[in-house]
C-alpha cells in the first residue's frame, strides 16, 4: 500500500536541553544528546514556513529551461534520483537555529559540530539504511551516501522508478541542454519509508543558469561592420538622394509594409506585424517568437542627422536567451558600407512590453547614415528571439543641452591606473542617482586583535575591462582596508566547472593584490568540465573572493551541470564536510520551476545554519521576471528566495579617483540584458526577520536582502580579460565580506539574515547606503527597503563592526 509523501504528524522530544549550551567561542563545543528513535515532525510555527509546497512535485520549467516532451521514457533507460531525508526533531532544530542567531540567547553562535548535528538532528544510520534497503529491494543501485545522512543518491531503470514512486517518467529535450527526463506525476512513497523522506528529486532538468553576463567589447565599440548584412542592399549606395531627410519616413510602419524609406537589412527576412503595435495598426518585427533567425534580420533607413538630433523609438523584446552569446537584439547607426558607427544597444531582453529608447546623435549632425534595427540569431531547438519596433523619430531636439548617449553599456577605461574613471554607468532610463555621504572608518574601532593586520587592497581601481578589487574595497570600505583579509577562514564556491589557478594569478596581477589563502577544486558527482561555457562564472566567483579577501581559503565544489541533483549534491557535500563557513551560489532559476529543488536546498541550508555556515545566492539577472512570464506575474529566483539564504542583489556605482563612493543606483545594464533580480516568494511565507520592516511585502519571503556592485567587473578567464555584469559578482563580494566579518569577530555568523535586519532596524542607514533610483521591471528602488536592492548596500567596515 502506498500513500502520498507528507509530513509526519508526531513529534519526538529531544532528550537534551539545548539551553545547556553556553559561552561564546569561535569553534564552540557541541552539546550532546541521545539519538532519536524515529523521525521527528515539522515545527508548527517558527521563523521559516512554506506556503504552497507539494513534496515530490512535477517540475514546470519555462523560459530558457522550457522543454519539449518526447513521451514515455524507455523502461530500461536509467533514471537518477536524490532522496532528501527528514531531520529528526525538526521543531527543536528550528528553535536552535533561531536561538543561534539571537544575541539575547545563551545559544547565540553556539554551533554544532558535524558529529553533534548527526547525533541530534540527522536521520539515524538505521533510518538511512532503511530507506537505502527499500531502494535496493526495488531495483535501485545506491551511488552515494553522505556523512551527514541527509541525501541518498541512487539510480534505477525507468520501470523501477515508476513502480516504486507511482509516477511516470518522460524523456524531454531541454533546448541547448539536450536530452533530459522528469517525472510527470506527483511521486508517492511506500508506507514503510514515507515517514523518513522529506522530498525526492527524480529529474535531471537544468534548473539554474549562471549570472555572469559577458559584455562583448566588439559589439559596444565602433567601427565594426555588421557582417551579417552580406552584400550591400541595392539601396545602400543610392538611398541618400531619395530618402535622406531630417524626419524618419513611415515612422510607425502604417503603410503596412517595409517601404517608404525602410528596406530589409540582413540575410534573413524582417516583417510587418499587427500583433501589438505601440500605436496605430502596425509595427515591425525582426526575428521570431518561436525560433531565431539564421543570421541577421532587420530594417534600415537612410537619414541625415539634424542639428541637435535626437533619435527616439519604441521596442518590444522577447527572447529566452540568457545572454548575447548566440543571439541578440540590436540597434545601430551605420555608415554607407554597413560599418557600425555607434551601437545603441546589444541585448537579450525579455520585457514583453514597450520600452522607449532615446539617443543623442548631435555629434553626427549633418552626416548621412543608416539607422538599423534588428535581431541576430543562431537557431537552436526551443530558442527564440524577437524585437518589435514602432514610432521611430529623428528630430531636432532644440538648443537645450543634449542628453548623453545611452550609458547602459559599461564604458571601458583606456588605461589601467590607480585612479581611472569608473567603468560602469547608470542605465539610460534611471532617475537621478543617490549621492551617498562618504563614511570614514569608525575612529573608535581600531583594527581588531583577531585580524592579521594584513595589507589593504591598494591596486588600480579599475582597468581596461572593468572594475578591479580595490575599486570595490575602497568604495564600499571592505574590512580588508582595515587589516581583516579573511585569514584563517575558508569559503566555498558552488559551480559546474573547476577553476584554473593560472587565471586567478592573471587577475590578481592585474588587480595588484597578493593572495595568501589557498584554492582547492573539489569534484562532486565526477566534477564539472573545465571547457564549459560557464567557466567565466567560476573565474568571476573565485577571482572576486581572492581579490577582496585574499587571506581566505577557497574550495570550489564543481559538479557536472546546473541540474537539480547536481546542485543539491554540491550543497550537501559542502555542508557535510563542514569546512567552509560561507558558501556562494552565483546561479539560479525560476522559484516555482522545481519545488523539490527549492525544498531540498532550503533544508540543506538550515543544517548549514545550525553548523555556523552562511549561504549566499545571486538574486537574479532578469529583474522581476525570473520565470519569463513578462511579469505576469513577477517572480523571484531560487535558491536566492530560500529563507536560509542571503539573497544578494546588484548596484551600479561610481567613485572618485581616490576610491570614495560618489553615486549608486540599482544594478542595470540594458545593453547587456542585465537587471538585478528581486521579488516575493510564492513558496515561502514571510520569515520573522523581515516582519515589521517598512516596505516589505507581507505575502511571502522578500528578496534581495542586500546589494553590492554588479555592473562592469573585469574577469580573467581562459587567459584573457573580459568585462562582466551580473549578481554573479555581487554574491561572491558578500561571501568575501562575510569571511572578513568572521575573522574580525573570531566566530562564524551562520544564519546572518536576522542580524542583517536587526542592525538595519536599530541603526537604519548608519551601516548601509540606501539606493533610491532604478527599476528591475515590476519594482522600483525607493527610500528604505525595496524589491530591487533590498535594504541597500553595506557600508563594509561600519556594518562589520555593528554585526
- The helix tally amounts to 13
Rg computed from alpha carbons, rounded to a whole number of angstroms: 27 Å
Q: Which shape, going by the Cα principal axes?
A: globular
Q: How many angstroms does the end-to-end distance come to? A: 52 Å
For the sheet with most strands, the description reads: 8 strands, mixed
Strand segment count = 42
Average of pLDDT: 83
- Helix fraction, binned, reads 10-25%
Q: How much of the sequence is in beta strands?
A: 25-35%
Structural class: alpha+beta
Low-confidence stretches: 1-47, 50-54, 217-244, 399-447
Describe this structure in words.
This protein is of the alpha+beta class and 803 residues long. The chain is built from 13 helices and 42 strands. Strands 25, 26, 27, 28, 30, 32, 33 and 38 form an 8-stranded mixed sheet that branches. Strand 39 and strand 40 form a beta hairpin. Helix 8 runs parallel beside helix 11 and helix 9 runs parallel beside helix 10. The protein is globular, with a radius of gyration of 27 Å. It starts with a strand and ends with a helix. The relative contact order is 0.13. The N terminus is likely disordered.
Q: What is the fold's blueprint, element by element?
A:
Elements: E1 2-4, E2 68-72, E3 78-85, H1 90-100, H2 114-120, H3 125-137, E4 141-145, E5 151-157, H4 158-165, E6 169-173, E7 179-183, E8 188-190, E9 197-201, E10 209-210, E11 213-215, E12 224-225, H5 239-243, E13 262-264, E14 271-273, E15 283-288, E16 295-304, E17 309-319, E18 328-334, E19 339-347, E20 354-360, E21 368-377, E22 385-396, E23 462-463, E24 466-467, H6 469-475, E25 490-495, H7 501-511, E26 519-523, H8 535-548, E27 553-558, H9 564-577, E28 582-585, E29 587-590, H10 595-610, E30 614-618, E31 637-638, E32 645-655, E33 661-666, E34 668-669, E35 674-675, E36 679-680, E37 702-703, E38 706-709, E39 713-717, E40 720-725, H11 727-745, H12 753-763, E41 768-769, E42 793-794, H13 796-802
Parallel strand pairs: 25-27, 25-28, 26-27, 28-30, 30-32, 32-38
Antiparallel strand pairs: 1-8, 2-6, 3-5, 3-9, 4-5, 6-7, 10-29, 11-40, 12-19, 13-16, 14-15, 15-22, 16-21, 17-20, 17-22, 18-19, 18-21, 23-24, 29-31, 32-33, 34-35, 36-37, 39-40, 41-42
